[in-house]
Amino acid sequence: MKLIRPEEFEELRKIYPNGTRVELLQMNDIQAPPIGTKGIVYGVDDTGSLLVHWDNGSGLSVIYGEDIVRKVVD
Hints:
The chain is 14% helix and 30% strand. It is globular and about 30 Å long. It has a 4-stranded antiparallel beta sheet. It has one helix at residues 6-15, and strands spanning 21-26, 38-44, 50-54, 68-71. The protein is of the alpha+beta class. The model has no long low-confidence stretch (mean pLDDT 93). It has one domain: SH3 Domains (SH3 type barrels, Roll).
């Protein structure tokens, strides 16, 4: 796991404020939602992971430095 610096943490909170829609591009987890699944960010934890309510009901976080999402506009 990649450690996050305080300035990176603050930048993530600015880029992905609560309510931001995201689309999953990559997640290395056997229980990951399918690529292309969309969800809503509801926070950033102290490790820099995005907390996401996925549209398919999953609650897996987007791990900082490992998983990849993009912001979307529906």
